[in-house]
Amino acid sequence: MKKFPLLWAVALVIYALPGYTQSTTTSPVNNASSTLCITHANLIDVSSSKTLADQTIIIEHDRILATGPSKKLKVPAGATIIDATGKYVMPGMTDAHIHFFQTGGLYTRPDGLNLQAVYPYEKDQLWAKEHLSDLMARYLACGITTVVDVGGPFSNFTIRDKVNADPRATNAWVTGPLISTYLPPNLDKKDPPIVKVTTPEEARELVKKQLPYKPDFIKIWYIVLPGMPAESTLQIVKATIEESHAHGLKVAVHATEYETAKLAVTAGADILVHSVDDKELDDDMLQLLKNKHTVYIPTLTVMHGYKRAFTQQFDFPMHDLKYGDPFMLGTLTDLQHIDKSVAGFEYKTLRTRHIIPSKEDTVMHTNLRLAEQAGINVVAGTDAGNIGTLHASSFFTELQAMQQSGLSNREIIRSATINAAKGFGKDKDYGSIEKGKIADLLLLEKDPTQDLNALADIQTIIHRGVQLQAKELLTPTPAILVQQQLNGYNARNIDAFLAPYSDSTSIYDQASGKLLMQGKEQMRQRYAAMFEKAKELHCQLVNRIVMGNTVIDHERVTGVGEKPMEAVAVYTVENDKIVKVSFIH
Questions:
Q1: How far is residue 273's CA from residue 220's CA, in Å, rounded to a whole number?
Q2: How many helices (H) and strands (E) does the chain have?
Q3: Tens of pLDDT along 262-313?
Q4: How many degrees, rounded to 5, is the angle at CA 172 between CA 100 and CA 25?
Q5: 9 pLDDT more than 60
Q6: Which residue positions does the secretion signal occupy (predicted)?
Q7: Contact between residue 232 and residue 224 where contact means Cβ atoms under 8 Å apart
Q8: Are 265 and 272 in contact (CB under 8 A)?
Q9: Residues 121-164: pLDDT tens digits?
Q10: How confident is the model at residue 3 (pLDDT cuts 50, 70, 90)?
Q11: Sign of the alpha-carbon torsion through 473, 479, 481, 483
Q12: Which is nearest to 126 in space by CA: 185, 191, 170?
């Protein structure tokens, strides 16, 4: 804290310089005709599981007017035309398991990791609300045109109304508070995301309390504490399902054990939002799921996010570093400078423990494969918002995990499109490219049925009939660029670290004026060697000041040498790239 006056002194000097400018960004404007035509595309038909060559899709306002062979469909006069020759078109994707009230950062679940002495939970909640628009843009940039919030505070309904009216936000299907058999500590008490009920009558009343908000479904958190039989709270589960069904609402259930999942499905649960992780699904259970038309959302990777954060062993994929919220991603490495007396544990000691039992992980992958083979409706979802599971960017990691379970690319694509729409009763309007449906489409350079990586770098999104470009959705601010390079540094990922820099970046020692490095190649040589050698390298952001196109960071680096190194780094941004860095030691 003593260093902050120096930081402000540097800021005041920079502000007075004649070359100082304020950077501005503008949102792109779509001036297209109300009719949009995509011609000569390879259309991925998720209903027939076929790819149809040379297809034209005609979109009027936000709906698909017609689809068919290009030689048979006449393009309306005055339409905006996208020539998709050699490209692939598929439906927009759905992440069927997210939580708006969670940010994905280190401080978002104080019931599991209470760090409120470092960063108050209220600040994390405020961040989630204030950065909703950015969150939505990140989902769209990842090709996710619909998200399903499977439980949160009553403010979820306000969020749904807001984003569904925003042309640059995803569609949102939501419910209110989780109707729970257990109440975790330290969460919001004013508008709680989880409400414990103790009787069937209380459960019915909580369902009724949500009805005026028109929930898309109801959610049960079926938690059985150690030493308690699963049947002890079954009547609450049954009452919730009965009341919900009486009002035409589907019911999603969190039940990760074989026994609780079977009881919930037998009672009429429509959707299981997690894998069964303690036992393989036997023939009886598979037949029950199929007969009941139960949706199975495997949610394979969420616990790995916790493991990486708690052990500080990160292997951030490039899509997290590129598309994830850089500030929330940045918090995930904070345990390296938080005292263990505050955290309640030493992160290095956890590395030798099995936080996620290998058997549990294997069972989840096996059960997903069994469910798919049995013809059960498998739907993709991440549980985004939990610690280490970033909104939007984590979806591709989940799809990769499903692939590792043995699902084909077509099966994975169906799970993220038509299966989700059918599972939540929305397939009249969503999930496939058909006449009359909402025009949510992705235009891809490569065939995702052959290479799933085609879904990791989507350039063009059609959302509610409007053409959007990913690069325009995610226009970087100077603070975002500087945070992204910091994240790349802490991840020791040389490509992610260098991505925000211009090719001709100059790095100086401010005191002497000496040029330390010039250009990315010199930076690559210097930093790549350090990243490889310093396995515990970590840069703590002590404080940051943003002044237009200049970002001033007070940084403390550990993991190189015996003592921490401190410096003030002044970053200059031009044309969405870092062009200059000056270090003040």
A1: 10
A2: 21, 24
A3: 999 999 999 999 999 999 999 999 999 999 999 999 999 999 999 999 999 9
A4: 75
A5: no
A6: 1-23
A7: yes
A8: yes
A9: 999 999 999 999 999 999 999 999 999 999 999 999 999 999 99
A10: very low
A11: negative
A12: 191
Percent helix, strand, coil in the chain, to 5, is 35, 25, 40
Mean per-residue pLDDT of the chain = 93
Among residues 138, 92, 93, 74, which one has the least CA distance to residue 416? 93
pLDDT tops 90 at residue 21: no
Ranges 19-23, 399-403, 510-514, 519-523: which has the least confidence: 19-23
Give Cα 438 distance to the centre of its chain. 23
**What's the average model confidence in pLDDT over 360-385?**
98
CA 196 from chain centre, in angstroms, equals 27
Please tell me whether residue 539 adopts helix, strand or coil conformation: strand
Name the residue among 206, 218, 142, 204 with its Cα closest to residue 174: 218
pTM above 0.85, yes or no: yes
Predicted confidence (pLDDT) at residue 344 exceeds the cutoff of 60: yes
Residues of the chain with pLDDT > 90: what percent?
88
Paired with 74 in beta bridges are none
CA-closest candidate to residue 117, choices 338, 308, 333, 309: 338
Q: Please answer whether residues 22 and 3 qualify as being in contact, where contact means their C-beta atoms are separated by less than 8 angstroms.
A: no
- The DSSP bridge partners found for residue 483 are none
Is the separation of the CB atoms in 472 and 479 below 8 Å? no
At residue 12, the pLDDT reads: 46
Q: In what order do the strands lie in the sheet with 538-547?
A: 515-518, 501-509, 577-584, 565-574, 550-558, 538-547
Residue from 575, 579, 555 nearest 567 by CA = 555
- Per DSSP, what are the bridge partners of residue 179? 195, 220
- Helices of type H across 416-565: 418-423, 470-473, 478-490, 494-498, 519-533
